[in-house]
Structures are given as structure tokens and as C-alpha cells.
Amino acid sequence: MKLQFTSQGSGNPRLCFVHGFTQTGNSWKKPASGIHGGTKIFIDAPDHGASQGVSLNLVEAGNAVAEISAGSTVIGYSMGARIALHAVLQHPDAFTGAVLVSGTAGISDDQERIDRKLQDEALACSIEDKGSESFIREWVQQPLFANSLFSEEEIADRMRNTATSLASSLRLCGTGSQQPLWGELHRIRIPVLIVAGELDKKFVGLAEQMHSLIPTSEIAVVPNAGHAVHTETPSSFCEIVNEWLDSQTNSKQ
């Protein structure tokens, strides 16, 4: 089963974008417009967008992303960052770099992970009961997205994701189903940029922890931004990513 994607441009550098839960590949297109790149690939993650019906767990999703985006820098947000992390660990020679935005290497504590999986299952059942439209309108009102503005166009795009697909995504790719990867991070040898929003304290802590364990990583905490850094403060986010990409290019010259 292959994930669907669209692409823009040609040549190098190649950048591959993986979105978060309830989004689609379209969700990256506006913020990605400020990032310097030759070829930009926008993947619809498992059970999202045109990849609905392609139900994969995180390991399988990592393999699928690597198949599409070999030779690129993979840029993932939230769920997409977790998929990107799997892709990089499972295919260490496939990527030129990675940008992990508001991501995590998983829940280390066994009981916490079990509890989170139960929460994910309860939410999946709630989505199936409420339907996609009602759930997504509630989802974007979470405190996690207090600094985000959602256009009706974006919400309508998210509503292409059916309740069945979103529930499947939670069960297969939710944080509760993710095996912790903290003990594997030291194996990463490609350049990694870890990004978190200053106001998203939980994920700032996770970013700092990942940075301490990935020897080739840099970290950027973006001022006045929450969880959705790339859409809340797109100019600052793109400037940080562009500087990092330029530094990688210069180091190879």
C-alpha cells in the first residue's frame, strides 16, 4: 500500500513534508512556500487526505515515507514528526536531513503509555460516534491550538478525513501505540533540526531531551509560538529552517 503525495518544483534540495493528525498534505503547502527548496513533496499521511484507506502503523508509515522521499530532507509536524523519526531510524541512509516540529520519541513509562493508548481508543470511539465534522471543529478548539487561527478552507480540507479514517489513524499512529525510540536516537547521523514553540512547554521539554540524545541535532525554540509553530509564526519558522538548510549546504562545499 502506497501513500499518496503531490509535488512542486524540481531539482535540489528535495524537501518532503509530513503533516499532523486531522490534516492533509495541503496543510503544509502555505507554510512551506517560505522555505527554500527545489522539489517539495507533500505526503498525505496514512488514513488522511488521498491516503484514506491506506492504514499503516508508525513503522509501516516510516517505511512508506522513506520510499517516497529518499534523497530528501524530511520535515514532519506532530504526528508527522513521529513518522519522520521512524523513517530516519529505519532508513539511516535514505535522507539528507530531518526537521522535527513539535515531535516526541514516545512515552517511556509503560503505564503512561498504556493509559495513553486507552485514551486514544476512547477518542477514536468518540470520533466514530460524533462524525468527522463535529470532531474536527472541537479538535481545533483545544488549548493546544490557542495561538492558531483556522480558516474555513483549512477546516473544510480536514473534513475530507472521514471519522473511520481518523479513528484508524489514532489506533495505529497515536502516541499510545508508539514504541519509545529514546534509546535509538544516538544512532542518527544525519543533520537534524528540532523545533518547538516557546509557549508549548511540554514539547519544549521533549525537544530539549531529543536534542541531548541526537548527536547531530540543533534545536530552535520559536518565541511567541505554540504547538503549531509553522502556521502560528510562519515567517520565524521559515527563517530558522532556511538558515539551517543553508548551513547544511555550506558545510558540504
- Fraction in helix: 40-55%
Shape: globular
Amino- and carboxy-terminal Cα gap = 39 Å
* Radius of gyration from the alpha-carbon trace, in angstroms: 17 Å
- Briefly note the CATH topology name of the largest domain: Rossmann fold
CATH architecture verdict of the largest domain: 3-Layer(aba) Sandwich
State the strand order across the main sheet. 1-3-2-4-5-6-7
Strand content: 15-25%
Global structural class: alpha/beta
| Residue runs with pLDDT of under 50 for 5 or more positions | none
* CATH superfamily heading of the largest domain: Alpha/Beta hydrolase fold, catalytic domain
User: What is the averaged pLDDT score?
Assistant: 95
Main sheet properties: 7 strands, mixed
Number of helices: 10
The CATH class label of the largest domain is: Alpha Beta
H-E string: EEHEHEHEHHHHEHEHH
The figure for the number of domains is: 2
